[in-house]
Design brief:
The protein is mostly helical. The chain contains eleven helices and three strands. A hairpin with a 4-residue loop joins strand 1 and strand 2. The longest helix has 24 residues.
Length: 287
């Protein structure tokens, strides 16, 4: 923007013969804009930590002396973003009439033919929404994630009070566990995460594109390329995580406030086994 303004000023100076030529003119003088970094979660550890953190914030809010009757269900919101991939506007617009628990599906409508779609509820998300519905006993016209007064939730609340706070808390746990921190996440990051999860479950790019409500395959294909580099072990962990029950989501993060990384624990366990085996061999060789 600065270069464009400077070029316009120098164009005027050139026309008035104040300078011989405009040094800021021409394509070679234009600086390419850096593309924003696209983020997503592509490990079961990261997803589990985020969901546990959101649930922990829910529990703390319930214990607050000024708690309102209708709390903002952070964990259910984060689970819905990660495991069904709505746009943020679709998330806050959804009503309970759009949640078909009997047939394991949820409906989103972004007012376009491709955007109006049913998305299959993964088992963990089904349990999450079923629990929320049982707690609230809503009418079909109620917003799924409405305000305390039943109105439409603001998108900024989802970004700032839910997603950002959950990431911040999750990173505290990950730091204590000596795990890599979560990147900056947006609702769009969650859509990319959902696409990655669907690929781990064996979906095709066309199926993922339909679930995202896209006609342009660019996002689905971009995430597909990353998902194909994911190890089979990581894909299996993702499948086990999202096809489990609600209680299995983030359960191992609640065992201890300061816990060891599963990777570190595995390495140390293997080391202990090797030491034990070596000790046994030494005893066998003794007279």
């Amino acid at each position: 923007m600065t270069l464009i303004l400077l070029s316009a000023i120098l164009d005027a100076a050139e026309e008035r013969k104040l300078i011989e030529r405009n040094p800021a003119a021409g394509k070679r003088r234009r600086v390419k804009e850096r593309k924003p970094r696209r983020t997503q979660l592509d490990t079961a550890t990261a997803i589990e930590a985020l969901l546990f953190a959101a649930g922990e914030l829910d529990a703390e809010a319930q214990e607050h002396p000024q708690t309102k009757v209708r709390l903002l269900p952070r964990r259910a919101i984060v689970a819905t973003l990660l495991l069904s991939g709505p746009r943020i506007g679709e998330l806050v617009d959804d009503r309970w009439a759009d949640v078909d628990l009997a047939n394991d599906r949820i409906q989103y409508d972004s007012k376009t033919p491709a955007g109006c779609r049913w998305v299959r509820l993964l088992p963990a998300l089904h349990d999450e929404l079923a629990t929320l519905k049982a707690q609230r006993d809503p009418s079909p016209d109620d917003y799924v994630f409405g305000t305390a007064r039943g109105g439409r939730q603001s998108e900024s609340n989802i970004r700032n009070r839910v997603l950002s706070k959950a990431v911040e808390r999750a990173n505290e746990h990950l730091a204590r566990a000596r795990e890599a921190p979560l990147p900056h996440l947006t609702p769009h990051s969650c859509r990319r995460t959902f696409a990655s999860i669907r690929y781990a479950l064996g979906a095709s790019p066309a199926e993922v594109m339909a679930a995202l409500g896209h006609t342009d395959p660019s996002l689905a294909l971009a995430v597909y390329a990353q998902a194909m580099r994911m190890s089979e072990e990581e894909k299996a962990r993702l499948r086990a995580l999202v096809e489990g029950t609600r209680d299995s989501l983030g359960s191992r993060w609640g065992q201890d406030d300061v816990r060891e990384s599963p990777q570190i624990a595995t390495i140390e366990s293997e080391g202990a086994s090797r030491r034990k085996a070596a000790g046994s061999r030494r005893k066998v060789g003794q007279p």
